[in-house]
Amino acid sequence: MDEQIHILAEKFYKSLYRIRRVEEEIARIYPTDKIKSPVHLSIGQEAISVGVCEALRPNDTVFGTYRGHATYLAKGGNLEKMIAELYGKSTGCSKGKGGSMHLIDVAKGVMGTSAIVGTTIPLSVGYSYALKYRNSNAIVVCFIGEGAVDEGAFHESVNFAALKRLPVLFVCENNRYAIHSHHLSRSHSDNIYERVQTYGMQAERIDDGDIFKIYEFTSNYIKRIMLGNITPVFLECITYRWKEHVGPNDDFHLGYRTKGEAEYWIQNDQLKKLKSLLDTDISSNIESAVDLEIKNAFEFAEESHFPEVKELYTNLFKDE
Amino acid sequence: MQRILSYPEAIKEAIVQEMTQNPSVIVLGQGVDDPKGILGTTKGLVDKFGSERVFDTPLAEDGMTGVAIGAALAGLRPIHVHIRMDFLLLAMNQLINMAAKMRYMFGGEVFVPMVVRAIIGKSWGQGAQHSQSIYPLFMNIPGLKIFAPSTPYDAKGCLIQGIRDNNPVLFIEHRLLYYQRGHVPTESYTVPFGKARILAKGKDITLVGISQMVIECLRARQYLKEIHIDAEIIDPVSLSPLDINTILDSVLKTKRLMVIDNAWMTCGAGAEIVAQLIERNIPRDVVIKRMGFASVPCPTTPALEQHFYPDAKEIALNAYQMLFSGKRAWQPDTELQIEEIEFKGPF
Fold first, then answer.
1. Which value does ipTM take for this structure?
2. To pair with B58 at 20 to 30 A between CA atoms, which of A97, A125, A155, B13?
3. Between chains, do A122 and B69 touch, taking CB under 8 Å as contact?
């Protein structure tokens, strides 16, 4: 196997395995009610965050969605603080005031996830405006779901990003469903990336979830930015959510989608594909290290304290 | 000699001074770089500071509010300008779900230093969608600070304070206040949040006027003078946080309060002020009245519009009735030459 591919596969596997196992553990713990926040699991979609974020540099910034565990972890967000946040503890990344849908790690360039669909899109664009204003060579990645494309703020934002030629990469995780509503029950055509092209930016679709293609697309974009060719780009990644919209369970019994529809994506699981590329001892070492880290993170959350009552009134305003 | 500036000149001077001393300050909004420059308040700024710092926007209030928030998260200090306050209704999602909440819901990890300028319209047939004054909606939201200055002095000082503040600030202007002229120091200065301004001392009744309504209160005070009623006029200046103590002290002295909202009254600033006073156990003999917009959308024709807004005459009549209920008939002398209605300071 090509050495470069092997190095990448190992990096990808480590990040992807970590995210998958974290969310499986969240799903396992969830029925105990220790997690004090609704969870929107990204299981099945994680390879997009990993493929993009592995190509990013520390000074690049990401904005994410309420299905944002993968984004947060892939960009380097602190695991202990994330689990503590889900537990509502004062040691959480948002001091227990945000929960699963409001993860943030400023030091790692995770500028926050939001529970209102589409709200972080203009924030990403505004952030990238500031980067360009300061002649930074950093970029912003704006992760969205295809549901966000229904929102006016999406169109307002991509228009402005194209107009001002801003350094922002829009990544649309098209898992086909907004809660239980199929994309084609909300849009005339299945052509998000083509629509975005008409705003005046490069826009492409990767339809098989291939993590290497996603990584390559992002890497090429950063190379282009480094050469001073600053424009926004848009990447639509077709993907599939394995779990229910919110919560730890499967939901195929509801009837709005079929198990057969999921089959391609389960067979195409990037985690399994990456593992098959690695020597067993390498993957085993990764797994045991990650498993230990996750065990410690949940213990950290368990042992942490809930915020004191006085914290109800803190953090409303800065300097007060 | 005192330097006299108009309200819009004071606003422009605040922006120019802050942009000059801090390269992080930017101005965006529909028409900020056009020949009219938001009634002159942003005129010429693009020539002085460049199109990266002063730029027109698409007609996308929600998206551009989010752009301002994102820029603020990255350390810029955007001033987002809306020539009509009504347009803020298109930006409520970003203002309320994001700007007001980000610091809290991320446990203090971020802050959003931005100013949203919004101008209330009135008269000449502005009509239902160009005259709204929706500050009560925002007063209901934790996480936003709100200024509504009425004098040129406060316009400059409050705007500089707002730009330097590290939180989202709503800066509410009024089209008719643009005719106000008054003393404005040349140098840079700030006016604090949470401090009301007593624009005129009096002992018989307290009139609290919001935004342009405080000018109507000053006019009413002149009518009332003719019949020896001495009204104290208070401009809250800062609606969030609200300085209830200055109003409380005045009411304990006068025993009579009228709050004249520059908006509909239900759940308005007047309702809030009165409720806070009652919670502070003001004496039971204090008489209270609220005034505000008629509870309908603003009509266009002057025949109806003049009855939509409270005016100085109506305020004076209500004040008179509060003091001399049924004792004698009185009508304000509307032929009275009202001079010096502008508050010229200095403070």
1. 0.97
2. B13
3. yes
